[in-house]
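Project standup — Tuesday

K.O.: blocked on the structure for the chain from last sprint. Re-posting the sequence here as requested.
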Amino acid sequence: MRKNSVKNTRINGEVQRALAEIIRGGIKDPRIAPMTSVVAVEVAPDLKTCKAWISVLGDEKAQAGTLEGLRSAEGYIRNQLAKTVNLRNTPQLTFIMDQSIAYGVNMSKLIDEVVEKDEKNI
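H.V.: unblocked you, prediction finished:
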């Protein structure tokens, strides 16, 4: 199976949906922030490993706590993923913090400030 095949794309989407559901409703760890989202998932073609990009709305302390909580609950998440998604192998999960949403919000705020300053000068 090639990396960008239709089957791999479908598996990535299904695993992303399942991970989001498990993180949102299945984990009771207080370190995991309530505004945690799964931005992207990349399952290896051999279904052995999975990289999950996670975005957390909050400060760096909340992001670090969420990442630590997810890593400690990896076994439970993998178990729930095996029950939810029917794959030959349940992939080993690797959580990666994604800053793209926070970066986008920050850039939008900066653009709004520049536009407001520009409107005052006209």
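K.O.: great, moving the ticket to review. Residues 52 and 95 are 5 Å apart (CA to CA). Strands lie at 36-43, 49-56, 92-97.
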